[in-house]
Structure formats: C-alpha cells, structure tokens
Amino acid sequence: MSGDNLRRVTTGKTMGDRPDERLTPLETVDDPRANSSTASRDAIPESLLTSVIDDVADGDLAVDDGLVTQSLDEILLALIALSDGGTHGTGLMDDLSQLFDAQLSPGTVYPRLHDLEADGTLTMHELVQTKQYLIEDAADAEAQIEQAAYRHLLVGMFLRASLDAL
C-alpha cells in the first residue's frame, strides 16, 4: 500500500495540543464494529495476523525493551484485562518477559501501575504480601489501548508501504 492509497482522518480527540489523526485506506471497508457479533475490531489481513500469531506462539517474537516501554501503559492495561481476576506486578513482569522477551525492572513497571491507579484507570487491592491490580475504568483503558494500536498500525503501514520502494 503506498501513501497515495491513504487519507488522513481526524478522530475528534487530541494528542497534546494537536488533533489526533489517523491514516486510513481510501478503499471502502465495511466497519467491523457495525456487526456486534464480529470478534475483531478492525479488518486485518488474515495472512499477516496468522503470521504474527505463529511467531508469538513459537516464541520467535523478540521486541526491543524500548518499544515495550513506549507502550507500557497500554500493554499493562491489556495484560490486566486479559487476566482472570486481576494480577500483580511480578506476574505482569513475567508476562512481559514471556510475551515480548522484555526484561523491565520493577522501577520501570511499578511507577506506571501507580500512575494508572492515580488516573483512575486501575484499582489496586492490597493483599497479604502483594498488590493486585484490576481495571477500574474500562472505557479509558479501551481508549488508551485502541489509540496505541492505531499508532503502531500507522507505523507498520508506513514501513510496509516503504517496502514497495525497495
């Protein structure tokens, strides 16, 4: 897909002092959200999705710690949302290591959890020897994860389009 096949769409939200804009394909694509039985949020090419899932399942996916850190809030929210009954910081760091081969320190992960709690997105329950984190504001968590997904998709689309030039 070249840049000629994309258009800039304003989401109605802001990113800092600028309007949040996304690049979308010019072709008409049915909105998957219109059908509530659709499990997927966006139409993703099946072959790409299968390839990524296979790489994750095979353990072939290693992501730079810096990239994980850039999206750490959203990744933590997603991990907590996917867990049954909440999780604790050590478990989240184990998940980051297993999923992304990221070796983040407690000094990186815990302050982010505390910030998400202070923002009201997470709630923390103190247990006997640990703290358990749960999603408090599902709408905010969903918005943060969706925005991060679109930002990463935009970069991925740009990189994919650049392959046509090689």
Can you walk me through this structure?
The chain is of the alpha+beta class and 166 residues long. It contains six helices and four strands; from the N terminus they run ββαααααββα. It has a two-stranded antiparallel ribbon with strand order 1-2. Strands 3-4 form a two-stranded antiparallel ribbon. It is globular and about 55 Å long. The two termini are 13 Å apart. The model is unreliable at 25-42 (pLDDT under 50).
Summarize the structure.
This protein has 166 residues and is α+β, with helices and mostly antiparallel strands. Helices cover 49% and strands 17% of the residues.
How are the secondary structure elements laid out?
Elements: E1 6-15, E2 18-25, H1 46-58, H2 65-70, H3 72-82, H4 89-100, H5 106-118, E3 122-126, E4 131-135, H6 138-163
Antiparallel strand pairs: 1-2, 3-4
How is the main sheet built?
2 strands, antiparallel
The low-confidence runs, each spanning 5 or more residues with pLDDT under 50, are 25-42
Oligomer: single chain
What's the total number of strands? 4
Approximate helicity band: 40-55%
Run of helices and strands: EEHHHHHEEH
Briefly note the structural class of the backbone.
alpha+beta
Q: What general form does the structure show?
A: globular
Instruction: Give the termini distance in whole angstroms.
Output: 13 Å
Total helical segments = 6
The percent range for strand residues is: 15-25%
